[in-house]
Amino acid sequence: MTGIPSRAGIAPAEGLRERKRRETRQRIAEVALRLFLTDGYDGTTLDAIAAAAGISRRTFFSYFKSKDDIILFGLDADSAMLIADLLKTSPDVAPLDAVRDVMVKRIASYTTEQMIAVDNLMMSSESLLARKQTRYAEQEQLLFNALCEVWRQPERRAALRMVAMVSIGAMRVALAGWREQTGQRKPAAKFLRDAFDSLRTEL
Amino acid sequence: MTGIPSRAGIAPAEGLRERKRRETRQRIAEVALRLFLTDGYDGTTLDAIAAAAGISRRTFFSYFKSKDDIILFGLDADSAMLIADLLKTSPDVAPLDAVRDVMVKRIASYTTEQMIAVDNLMMSSESLLARKQTRYAEQEQLLFNALCEVWRQPERRAALRMVAMVSIGAMRVALAGWREQTGQRKPAAKFLRDAFDSLRTEL
DNA sequence: AATAATATTGCACTTAGTGCAAATAAACAA
DNA sequence: TTGTTTATTTGCACTAAGTGCAATATTATT
Question: Cα–Cα distance between B185 and B178 in angstroms, integer?
Answer without folding.
Answer: 9
